Structure formats: C-alpha cells, structure tokens
Amino acid sequence: xxxxxxxxxxxxxxxxxxxxxxxxxxxxxxxxxxxxxxxxxxxxxxxxxxxxxxxxxxxxxxxxxxxxxxxxxxxxxxxxxxxxxxxxxxxxxxxxxxxxxxxxxxxxxxxxxxxxxxxxxxxxxxxxxxxxxxxxxxxxxxxxxxxxxxxxxxxxxxxxxxxxxxxxxxxxxxxxxxxxxxxxxxxxxxxxxxxxxxxxxxxxxxxxxxxxxxxxxxxxxxxxxxxxxxxxxxxxxxxxxxxxxxxxxxxxxxxxxxxxxxxxx
Length: 265
Fold this sequence. Notes:
Elements: H1 11-19, E1 32-33, E2 39-40, H2 44-54, H3 59-75, H4 77-96, H5 101-132, H6 135-154, H7 156-167, H8 171-186, H9 189-206, H10 223-238, H11 244-260
C-alpha cells in the first residue's frame, strides 16, 4: 500500500500507487511549494482521493464509493491508532536532532503489521472500486493520478529549492545534503525501479476489464516498508546538517501540513 507521512492509505490512495510509480514510496515530509515559499502541496494519496472525487459519477456510484471508504477506514483503524504515535516520534526526533530507534522501531513494526493485516481488505476494496467505475471512469482516474505524478516529478527541483529556502539552508549545507543523498539514495535506486515498474503495470491493468488486485505483482510488495525506509533515510540525511532553528522550522512545516489535510472517512 502507498501512503504519505501524514495520513493512512485509503482505497483511492492505493489506486494512486498503482496508477503512478514513485508518487508515494519514499515521499519526503514536504511535498510542494505553497504561499510564502513554504513547502506545501498535495501528497499522492490526497491527490488520488481528489481524483476520485472529481470523477463524474451517478448518485448510486457515489453512495457506493462512500460506503467503500467507510468500510476501508474501519479496516485501517488499527493502523490509524499507531500513526499519530509514529508521526510524533519522528517529529520529536527532528526536534532533538536524532531519531530514537528504541522508540521508532517498535512503532514502525506495529504500523507495518497493522497495514499488512489490512492488505486483503485493501485489495478487495480496490477490486470493488474497479467494479463500481465504468471503463471510461477507470481510465480517467488512472490518467488523472498519473498526470499529478508527472507534474510532481517535473516540479521536483522547485520543491527542493523552496524547502531549502524555507529552512534557510546555506550553500555548504546544500552541498552536504546533496552528496549524502547521492550516496544513500543510490543504494535504493534499483529496488525502487523494480517497484515503480510493478506500479506502472498495475495502473495499466486497472484500466482493463480483467483487473484483479490480488494477482498483481505489486500486491505483495513491501510498499509501506519502502515508504518508511524513505522517511528514515530522508531524516537521517537532514538531521546531522540542520541546526536547532532549522529543525524547529521543519517540525512547524510538517505540523502545518498535517493540520491542513482534510479529514475524510
């Protein structure tokens, strides 16, 4: 399943992972520039939810979609209980300048276990989403999410620039982060390419009549683990370089993003 740092996967969020490779896995805490130069924006799972909401559907379809979301939210409730504790552990680590493995590792394991238990329900929900939508709606959904992903990728450098500006990074700090990221993230490149290819194939499959989420190669892929690993790597790159004031700014940015997220079933 795919998710973002500030929320849990919904059925539409999982569709986002299937529709666009690289939207969710390893997402950094700040996604895109907003007003005043502060990193802000629409995370991949929220973009997927909006894409579903923007579909032109009948009253009957809309009722079915709402029921589907509510049922999936119930299945994900155990993971929802872990999420705020895990996010707070990350934020406390940012503020302290060092992640605490003794605190974070058990929470990550609990989160992964909870989402793994919900995996069959998520796959069933994705199949139900496929059944609810018409062929044209399925194609429109996948294309809309893919377009968001392409736009996000195209805006990547600008997002990095805005985040650096918001945190007040010096030229020396930028160089340190660049070289550290090149070394650490290079190790993940091949694995991420494999996941991306599986996600692209799943997005194409969602457009077909024969779609079955349980048959997808990506259905058993450790997407949540990869996402958490991306967060850990991102923070481990940043924290040794940032000073106390910059870490405080990063915490504030993340908190504002969390508070701005719409609450949905």
